[in-house]
Amino acid sequence: MTYSAFSTLSYPAGGYTGAADPSSLFTRSITTQPNAWGNVGGNVGANWNSPGGMGDNALEQLFLQFLLSITSPSQESSGMPMPSMPSMPSLPTSSGGVTQASYRSSSGTGVVNANGAVERGDANVRPAGSGNAAGVAQTQLHKSAASIMADQGVPMDKGVDTTVCCANFASACLVKSGKISESQHTNLVSTLHSELKGDGWRTVSRNEAKPGDICIVGDDEHVEIVASNDNGRITLIGSNNTQGGSGPQVVSYDTYTGNRGDVKFLSE
To answer: Which residue, of 88, 89, 99, 189, has the greatest Cβ tally within 10 A?
Structure first.
C-alpha cells in the first residue's frame, strides 16, 4: 500500500483529543493536530510508514477488512458477518378471520333496566316486504339495542336491560317479517324456542340452515338469526354484547357462534 493510492481522499482539518486503549493495537495517544492524519509534524509522506501511521501494518489490515466488509456481496464471499434484519413480531391470528360475538346468557327471567317496567314494542311497525327475518335484521346492523328500542326500527320491547336483548331483537325481527305474531314476542330465549317449535319450526342441520332461520345457542342461552350459509359455514346476525361480553348490545354479524358444536338451527 502506498500513500499515492489515497491521494484523492480528503481528511478532517482538525484532530481528536482522547486517550488510546492500552489493550488494543493502537497505543499512541490521540492529540489535536493541524492535520489529524499527519503522525509527526506536517510531512505526511515522510511519516506514512511510521508506527501508528496509515502505513502501519495493523492499520493497513484493519482498513483492508473495512473495505472488504462494505464491498463484499455476501457473507460467504467475504468471510465477514453480514447484518441481519430484526424479525417482525407475529401478528395475532384467528381461525379464518372469524368474528366472535359476545353475549350474556338470556335464559333467566325477564330483566328490566333502571327505567322501570318493560313496555311492548310498537304494534304498528309494518312487516318488512322481504318476509325474511335476516333481511329485517340487516336494516338494523351496527345500531345499539337502546337506539332500536327508542326509534322502533323493529318492534323491540322497551325497558329491557340492554345487555340481554338477544331474544328481544330476534323476536322483533320475526314479528316485522311476519313469521310470528306480535303477541308471541318474547324477551326470553327459552320462550322463543318454545313458540317456534309450537308453530311447527323444525330442527335442521347446519348444512340445511338458510337465511332467516333461528340459531339457538347452548341451553337456551343466546339466540341469533342465520344471515348466510356458505357450504356449511354459518354467519349469524343478532344483538350481541360489547366490551368483551358485558357491555350494552349492538346488532352485529357473527361468524363464530353458528359454527360451534352446541347450537341448534330452527327452520320454518
So the answer is: 189
- pLDDT tens digits, one per residue of 27-58: 444 444 444 444 444 454 445 455 555 455 66
Q: What average pLDDT does this structure show over 245-264?
A: 94
**Could you give the CA distance from residue 97 to residue 237 in angstroms, rounded to a whole number?**
17
Q: Which residue matches cell numbers 335484521?
A: 137
Give every strand in the sheet of 233-241, ordered side by side: 202-204, 263-267, 214-217, 222-230, 233-241, 249-254
Euclidean distance between CA atoms 149 and 145, whole angstroms: 6
Euclidean distance between the first and the last CA atom of the chain, given in angstroms as a whole number: 93
Mean pLDDT within 98-123 = 50
Tell me yes or no: is domain 99-267 CATH 3.40.50.12710.
no
Domain definitions of the chain by residue range: 1-76, 99-267
CA–CA dist 205, 266 (Å, integer) = 9
Q: Quick one: which of 43, 39, 42, 41 has its CA closest to 29?
A: 39
